[in-house]
Amino acid sequence: MxxxxxxxxxxxxxxxxxxxxxxxxVLAAHACAQATEGVLWRALSLDIHDGGACPVAQDLDCxxxxxxxxxxxxxxxxxxxxxxxxxxxxxxxxxxxPCSTHAAGTPAHLFMLQLLRxxxxxxVDLRSHAQNLPMRAGDTLLHCASGTAxxxxxxHLGGTRQLETGDTLxxxxxxxxxxxVPLEPGDxxxxxxxxxxxTF
Length: 200
Known about the structure:
By secondary structure, this protein is mainly beta.
């Protein structure tokens, strides 16, 4: 692994159907030929406008966060357990577990991180105010879910980057760094997803 920074514009992540009720964009992924789904991890942006069954996938653990809209009701079909998600809420589940959704309010915009079980782990946070983002070894995905975000990276990683809605900055660091990345949201409605991934 070597240090790298890649800007993925929103236009490079076309939306595709995700079940009968939603559309998804694959924002970034790490391919793995040996995995059932062909990935070690992947990050998706989801827009759910109605209710219905969710696609299933094998051997992936998921972290789901509602960014805007909703509330969203997420039901595990086998257990009939329903979780109500508000903006900023997280849900952890196995992708092979059949689920269904119902958007109770406005259309729901979500972020999902899928991780190959026993091979990758991660976390997802929502940033909405100015702060310093500590960097760490592994993969960092900074996805501008709404508004704009100014990120002041050090010069050796390309310097300052401006993210627009839908843009994703993928930062890979080989070792534990000794710096933070100042974040400046464009306005009070700007939202940045901060997802971190490490592999075993």
